[in-house]
Design goal:
The complex is a heterodimer. By secondary structure, chain A is of the alpha+beta class. Chain A has 24 helices and 18 strands. In chain B, helix 6 runs parallel beside helix 8. The chains are: A alpha+beta, B alpha+beta.
Chain lengths: 702, 310
C-alpha cells in the first residue's frame, strides 16, 4: 500500500514549539485520513529548526465506496420540495428514487452511491487545509502576499513543501497542491550552510538518507542522543563529568540540524562565584552545559557548547567566540555577585516599601512584616527558636532586590542563603532564606529545620489567607498565584515533619495580621473554614496519589474541628484499615441500613429522631444489648480518640457489629405502636451518632 | 573587500564596519538615510521605520541611529553597557523572500565567514509597548553572541502591517567588538588607524558616558522633564488635530511634526524612569500615554501620501 511523505520547509522554528508541532501535524493528517475512510498502518512525525516532516505508511490507494440512503419528501409533496430532493441526491427524476411506506404514507428514498476517491486526491485536498489551519501558538504573515486578505499565516515564512505518495517499490507521485503561491514538489534543502543546494526526494527512506548526507539529522531524539553522547565523551576525555540538563538538551537539539559538540573554557577565577550562578549564566544566556569534577562534585572552568556547524577550522573560531561571550557574561555575573555582597540584606529592606506586592494586599514591606509576625507566633509551635525564626523571616525575601536574582529569578532563595552566610548569619537563618520557598513542586524536598519550617509555613499561610481575603481563589485551571502549590506545601511540611499544628488557629493569626494593616476585607469569619475545605481538597489529591480513598478523607474532615492534618491522616489510615476488615465492612453495611431507614422515615414523617431513646420502651433483648453496647463503645472510642489512638477506637467500633446485625435480624422498626417505632428510630440514630466518634460514615462510599 | 585600505576594513575599524554595512545595503537598493535628528531609544523609532512600516508602499532603507537608553548608563565603567550607542537599522518592505540570505551576506561583507562561524536564528519575539508594535523573528547569534535582531513586523502603532516589513537591527558596538576581537567597548578602534593616529571609541565617547550617567541618574531636572512630557504630549495631539485636511479626516497634512513630539515624550519618559521618579504603577500609565500618541500618529500617517493615500 502507498506511503505519504510530507515536509514543510520554513525559516527557523522556535525550539520550544517543534515537538508539539510535529505531533500536531501527525494528528491533523491521520485524523483526517481516518475520517475519510483511509485507515493507515503507521505514522511518524519529525521536526528540525527548519522543517516539519511526516511519513504515513500503508494508506489504501482508494477510499471505500459509500452507499447511503437519503430520505426524501412524501409522494405528492410540492414540486419544489421534490426538485430540491432530486438535486441534493443527484437524481434526474423521481423514477430513480424508491418509494417506501411509513405510518403517515408513502415517501421517496434515494439510494446514493458515492464511489470512493483516489487517496491521492483526498490527500491533495486535505493538506492545504491543514497548512492553513495549523495551530501554531503564534504565527505571522510575511512578504508581498501579506497584504492580501487571507494571506497564509505560519510560524515563520514557509518556503517549500514536499508531498509524495506511492508504494515503497515504485516511483511515488506528486501530491499536487498549492498554498498561497507555494507549490508542493519533490524538492527540499539541506543544512543552511553545509549543504544549501536543492535535493530531490521521493520516499521517506531516501528522504532521510539524503537529508543525512546534506547534514541534517531529521529525528530530534537522535540529535539529542548525539549531543548527550558527544558531550559526555568530551567531558570524560578531560577527566570531568557533564552536568546533565534535560531541558537544555531538548532546547539545544531544537536549535541545530547538525549537532557538533565542542568544549570551551573560562578563567578559573570565575569559580569564586557560586556554581549555581555560573550554571545559570552559561545555561540561560548561552545555552551551554557546564562540567564538574566527579571527585569533588564542584564545577570546573569548562563548558560544552552545541554548534550547528562543521567548521572549516575545526571549530576554533566558534569556541573562541563562545569563550569570549561567556567571559563577558561571567564578568557581569561576578560583578553582580560582588556588588550584592557589599550591601547587607537588612539594608535592602526599605526598598520593599515602594514595591507593591498586590494592589489590595499592600506592599512587599507589609507582607514581610506580616510573615515576620506570623513566623514569631508559629515558631514555638514547631519547635523553632523565636528570635532566629523572626530574623530569618525578615531577611528571607531580601535577595529579591539583589542584582543576581534580578538577572536570574530562578536563583531566588539560594542567593539569599549565600548572602546571609556571607554576612555571618546563623546557619539556620541562612538556610531558611533558601528553604522557606520549599517545597516548590511535587518532587522538591520539604524543609526540616524548625526555623525554615516556621518561615515556610508563615510565608505560605500569609499568601493563602491574603488571597482568600480578597476573593482571589484558584478557579479551574487558573491559579496565577500558585495557591494550590502553597497549600500543598503547607500540607507536606506539616505531614513530613509530623507537626501538630491546628490550622484554623494559624489562619486566624494570619487574618489578625492582615486586619492590622488592611480594613476592607470580605468574609473573614467564614475564611478559616473555607480555606480548610481547600486544604481538605488538596489533601485528598495528595492522599489519592498515595492510594488512599478520597471518600475517607471527606468522612474525617466532615467531623467538627478537624484541622490537625497529622491526626486527620492517621485517622484516615486507621479508618481505611478498619473498612478493609470484615467487621468494618459489616458495620458500614449496618450503618448504611440504619441511615437509609432513618432517611426514609424522617422524610415520611417530616420529623427527625435525634433525641435519646427511652430505655423504658425497649422490649426486646437485642434493643437493650445494642443500647448498652453503644454506650460502652461510644465511651471507649471517645477515650481512644482523645488519646489519638485510632486503631483502638476502630477496634471498639468493631464491637458494635454483632449487636447491630442482631438488631436488624430480630427487631422490626416500623411497628404500629407509634411510641415504640419512634424509640427504635432513635436507637438507629444512635448508631449514626456513635460512629461519628471516628468518622462521618455517611461520607463513605460502598 | 580586498581593495579596501587596511584602515577601512570592518574588522579593524568601527567606522569601516559602518561604511561596509551601508555599502552592502546600498548595493541592494536601500535608501541610505542619515540618523534621525532627535533622541530615540532605538532605530525603530526613526520615522523611516515606524511610520514607513505602515501603509502599502514599498520602502527599503538603511541607516545608523544613535540610540539612547538613559537607564543603561554605567559611568563608563562597564565594558559592555552604554547609555548611548549605535544601531544599524535596515527596513525592507515588503520583506523579500531571500531576506535571511541577504542578512547572512551582509555578515559576510563585514568579515564574518559562515564557513567558520556558528550562525543561528534563535526565537525572539519583539514587542514595543510604547509603539504599540509587535513582530516575530529571531536574535541572530554568531558563536553564541547576539549580533542582530531580525523581525517581521506584524503590527505598528496598533495597525496591521500590510505588507509586512522585515527589520534588521545590528548592535554596532557589539558587532565591532566581535570582529575586532576586543573585550571592552572603549578599546574599539574607531578610525582604523594605528599608533598616534588611532582614535578609540573611548576617545570619542567615554567622557560623554560619564557625563550623561551623572545627568541621567543624579542631576536631570525632573521637574522640567515632567513638564516637557506633558507639553510634548499636548503638542502631539494638537498637531494631529490641526493636521486633518477635512472634516471627514480623509487626509492628514502634518503627521511628521506630531510624531516628533511622540518621540520626544518617549525619550523624556525614559529620562524620568532612569532618574527613578516614576513609580511602578505610574510607569504603566506613562507607557500607555506614549502608545496612545504613537497610535494616533499611525492612524494619521495612513491618511498621507507616503502612507498610501493617493
Amino acid at each position: 500500500m502507498p506511503d505519504l511523505l510530507f515536509e514543510l520547509f520554513s525559516e527557523e522554528i522556535p525550539a520550544r514549539m517543534q515537538a508539539r508541532a510535529a505531533e500536531d501535524l501527525k494528528k491533523m493528517v491521520t485524523d483526517r485520513l481516518v475520517d475519510a475512510g483511509l485507515v493507515y498502518e503507521g505514522a511518524r512525525a519529525f521536526a528540525t529548526p527548519r522543517r516539519l516532516a511526516l511519513t504515513v505508511q500503508g494508506i489504501p490507494a482508494r477510499q471505500p465506496d459509500l452507499k447511503e440512503e437519503k430520505k426524501g419528501p412524501r409522494v405528492g409533496a410540492p414540486e419544489n420540495a421534490i426538485a430540491g430532493f432530486l438535486k441534493s441526491a443527484g437524481l434526474n427524476s423521481v423514477d430513480e428514487a424508491r418509494v417506501e411506506k411509513d405510518k403517515k404514507g408513502d415517501f421517496y428514498v434515494a439510494l446514493i452511491e458515492k464511489p470512493g476517491r483516489d487517496a491521492i486526491d483526498v490527500i491533495a485536498d486535505m493538506l492545504p487545509v491543514i497548512v492553513r489551519t495549523f495551530p501554531w501558538p503564534k504565527s505571522m504573515r510575511w512578504g508581498e502576499r501579506s497584504e492580501r486578505p487571507g494571506a497564509l499565516s505560519w510560524v515563520r515564512p514557509l518556503h517549500a513543501m514536499v508531498a509524495t505518495f506511492g508504494p515503497e517499490t515504485e516511483e511515488p507521485t506528486l501530491v499536487h497542491f498549492a498554498v498561497d503561491g507555494i507549490e508542493s514538489g519533490f524538492v527540499t534543502y539541506g543544512h543552511r550552510f553545509l549543504a544549501p543546494d536543492p535535493i530531490s526526494v521521493r520516499h521517506f527512506d531516501d528522504y532521510v538518507a539524503k537529508l543525512e548526507k546534506a547534514k541534517v539529522v531529521l529525528d530530534a531524539e537522535r540529535r539529542r542522543e548525539i549531543i548527550r553522547t558527544d558531550a559526555k565523551n568530551l567531558a570524560f576525555a578531560q577527566g570531568y563529568e557533564l552536568v546533565e540538563d534535560e531541558g537544555l538538551l531538548a532546547e539545544a537539539a531544537g536549535l541545530v540540524e547538525w549537532p557538533v559538540v565542542l568544549v570551551g573554557s573560562f578563567d578559573e577565577t570565575f569559580l569564586q562565584i557560586p556554581g549555581e550562578v555560573i550554571q545559570a549564566t552559561i545555561r540561560n544566556n548561552q545555552k551551554c552545559f557546564v562540567l564538574r569534577d566527579p571527585q569533588t562534585a564542584r564545577l570546573v572552568n569548562k563548558f560544552v557548547l552545541v554548534s550547528n556547524m562543521e567548521a572549516k577550522d575545526g571549530g576554533r573560531a566558534i569556541v573562541a567566540g563562545n569563550e569570549r561571550v561567556i567571559r563577558a557574561r561571567l564578568s557581569d555575573a561576578k560583578f553582580f555577585y560582588e556588588t550584592d555582597l557589599k550591601t547587607r540584606l537588612e539594608d535592602r529592606l526599605h526598598k520593599f516599601k515602594d514595591i507593591v506586592f498586590h494592589e489590595k494586599l499592600g506592599t512587599q514591606a507589609a507582607r514581610i512584616a506580616r510573615i515576620e509576625q506570623l513566623t514569631g507566633e508559629l515558631a514555638p509551635l514547631v519547635g523553632a527558636d523565636v528570635g532566629k525564626a523572626k530574623r530569618a523571616a525578615r531577611l528571607a525575601k531580601a535577595d529579591l532586590l539583589t542584582e543576581v536574582v534580578g538577572e536570574f529569578p530562578e536563583l531566588q532563595g539560594l542567593m539569599g542563603r549565600y548572602y546571609a552566610q556571607a554576612q555571618g548569619e546563623d546557619e539556620a537563618v541562612a538556610h531558611a532564606c533558601e528553604d522557606h520557598y520549599k517545597p516548590k513542586g511535587p518532587d522538591d524536598l520539604v524543609p526540616s529545620d524548625p526555623v525554615s519550617i516556621a518561615v515556610a509555613l508563615a510565608d505560605k499561610i500569609d499568601i493563602l489567607v491574603g488571597f482568600w481575603s480578597i476573593d482571589e481563589k484558584p478557579t479551574g485551571s487558573k491559579d496565577p498565584y500558585a495557591l494550590r502549590r502553597a497549600a500543598l506545601g503547607v500540607i507536606r511540611i506539616v505531614l513530613d515533619n509530623n507537626l501538630r499544628l491546628p490550622l484554623v488557629a494559624a489562619f486566624r493569626r494570619a487574618i489578625d495580621g492582615l486586619l492590622s494593616t488592611h480594613s476592607a476585607l470580605i468574609n473573614v469569619d467564614r475564611l478559616p473554614v473555607e480555606l480548610l475545605a481547600f486544604f481538605a481538597d488538596r489533601l485528598k489529591v495528595q492522599l489519592r496519589e498515595q492510594g488512599a480513598r478520597h471518600d475517607l478523607v471527606d468522612a474525617v474532615f466532615s467531623l467538627e474541628g478537624q484541622d490537625d492534618l497529622v491526626l486527620v491522616v492517621r485517622r484516615v489510615a486507621a479508618l481505611g484499615r478498619f473498612l478493609d476488615s470484615d467487621d468494618g465492612r459489616n458495620l458500614l453495611a449496618g450503618f448504611k441500613r440504619a441511615a437509609n431507614i432513618l432517611r426514609i422515615e424522617e422524610k415520611k414523617d417530616n420529623a427527625s429522631y435525634d433525641g435519646a431513646p427511652d430505655e423504658a420502651l425497649y422490649q426486646l433483648a437485642e434493643e437493650k444489648v445494642l443500647a448498652r453496647a453503644m454506650a460502652e463503645v461510644k465511651a471507649e472510642a471517645g477515650r481512644a480518640v482523645a488519646g489519638e489512638d485510632y486503631e483502638s477506637a476502630m477496634r471498639a467500633m468493631a464491637k458494635l457489629r454483632p449487636h447491630v446485625d442482631a438488631f436488624f435480624d430480630k427487631v422490626t422498626v416500623n411497628v404500629d405502636d407509634r411510641a415504640l417505632r419512634a424509640n427504635r428510630l432513635k436507637l438507629l440514630n444512635e448508631i449514626r451518632a456513635a460512629t461519628r466518634a471516628v468518622a462521618d460514615f455517611s461520607r463513605i462510599e460502598g | 573587500m580586498s581593495e579596501l585600505p587596511p584602515y577601512m576594513r570592518p574588522e579593524r575599524s568601527f567606522q569601516g564596519l559602518i561604511l561596509a554595512l551601508q555599502r552592502f545595503w546600498a548595493d541592494h537598493g536601500c535608501v541610505i538615510l542619515q540618523p534621525y535628528d532627535m533622541e530615540v531609544g532605538a532605530g525603530t523609532f526613526h520615522p523611516a521605520t515606524t511610520l514607513r512600516a505602515l501603509g502599502p508602499r514599498p520602502w527599503n532603507a538603511a541607516y545608523v541611529q544613535p540610540s539612547r537608553r538613559p537607564k543603561d548608563g554605567r559611568y563608563g565603567e562597564n565594558p559592555n553597557r552604554l547609555q548611548h550607542y549605535y544601531q544599524f537599522q535596515v527596513i525592507l518592505k515588503p520583506s523579500p523572500p531571500d531576506i535571511q540570505q541577504l542578512y547572512l551576506n551582509s555578515l559576510y561583507a563585514i568579515g564574518i565567514d559562515p564557513g567558520i562561524h556558528d550562525i543561528r536564528f534563535v526565537e525572539d519575539d519583539w514587542e514595543s509597548p510604547t509603539l504599540g508594535a509587535w513582530g516575530l523573528g529571531w536574535e541572530c547569534w554568531c558563536d553564541g553572541m547576539e549580533v542582530s535582531q531580525f523581525t517581521y513586523f506584524q503590527q505598528v502603532a496598533g495597525f496591521e502591517c500590510a505588507p509586512v516589513a522585515g527589520e534588521l537591527t545590528y548592535g554596532l558596538e557589539r558587532l565591532a567588538m566581535y570582529v575586532q576581537g576586543v573585550d571592552n567597548v572603549y578599546n574599539l578602534n574607531f578610525n582604523g588607524r594605528e599608533d598616534n593616529r588611532k582614535v578609540t571609541y573611548g576617545d570619542v565617547f567615554l567622557q560623554a558616558e560619564q557625563e550623561y550617567s551623572r545627568h541621567n541618574f543624579e542631576h536631570s531636572d525632573y521637574e522640567m522633564l515632567f513638564k516637557q512630557f506633558s507639553m510634548a504630549e499636548e503638542a502631539c495631539r494638537k498637531y494631529l488635530a490641526d493636521g486633518w485636511a477635512d472634516k471627514e479626516k480623509s487626509r492628514h497634512l502634518m503627521v511628521l511634526p506630531a510624531y516628533d513630539q511622540c518621540i520626544k515624550a518617549s525619550h523624556v519618559f525614559n529620562l524620568l524612569d532612569a532618574r527613578g521618579v516614576i513609580s511602578v504603577t505610574e510607569r504603566q500609565s506613562y507607557i500607555l500615554r506614549v502608545r496612545e500618541l504613537a497610535k494616533a500618529c499611525g492612524e494619521a500617517w495612513l491618511k498621507t501620501q507616503a502612507g498610501g493615500q493617493g
